[in-house]
Prior knowledge:
Blueprint: H1 7-13, H2 21-33, H3 38-90, E1 95-97, E2 103-107, E3 110-119, H4 122-127, H5 137-143, H6 147-153, E4 157-166, E5 169-173, H7 188-195
Antiparallel strand pairs: 1-2, 2-5, 3-4
Amino acid sequence: xxxxxxxxxxxxxxxxxxxxxxxxxxxxxxxxxxxxxxxxxxxxxxxxxxxxxxxxxxxxxxxxxxxxxxxxxxxxxxxxxxxxxxxxxxxxxxxxxxxxxxxxxxxxxxxxxxxxxxxxxxxxxxxxxxxxxxxxxxxxxxxxxxxxxxxxxxxxxxxxxxxxxxxxxxxxxxxxxxxxxxxxxxxxxxxxxxxx
Length: 196
């Protein structure tokens, strides 16, 4: 991204609610009082703001790209940890000690339960007092845990239970107290090829 940095633009960029606004105001007065033609002054002021727009648009796109990259890397890491755990399990390994890290262990697979409440008759639930400008789903969820309130709400709500299985993953247990990473860890496959 190529941008032009006008001095006025730089002054604008440094404006904050607590900054010295007079500094900017005085510079703007200098621009307006200069002996340049009015259209040059107009262009200068407008282009300074437009360059800020360009920077904002660029940053918006970069943030979007970085957010997508972050999500992709998180998914890749999760998949990699699951495959590593599965592969190590095939070899009967549930824990491996390291020198740069304390150990690798396999976190067992687990099931995560998610409740979803569907309000069948919102008006009746509101009349029962479960309201927060609409049905207060959090209060309904809590009330459903009590038998007497459950019976009161049962005709008006459906409760569905959803189980999500989270596969086993490799867990990297970092050493405590030491931030120094051992730098003599080598790429295994490269060294094996040299040894052959």
